[in-house]
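**Archive record**
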Amino acid sequence: MSVTVNIFYSGTNGNARKFAEEMESTKTADAIRREEGNLCYEYFFPMNDPETVLLIDSWTDQKAIDVHHASPMMETITRLREKYDLHMKVRRYRSDEGGIPASDNRFIKE
């Protein structure tokens, strides 16, 4: 069962966006995307809150997250969070292995 973590990074003076930009420009985010078990690692910017960045971070299972959390990569992430003085709100979701119900398909245009 996959696990998706939505992390809302908030700061001041554009620091949350600067954090995401540095994660991308230093290829740290790319390295995380290449970690075994990573399904998604993408930043988004809420339209109504310029001081917040949403990270959608998805993994195949909790074991993959645990390995990631034990890696040296977390030191880099923690250092950057501190550099930009970010605060976090976290929401975790587990996948519905049954997929999208047929009744919902009529609302989805691919």
The chain is about 35% helix and 30% strand.
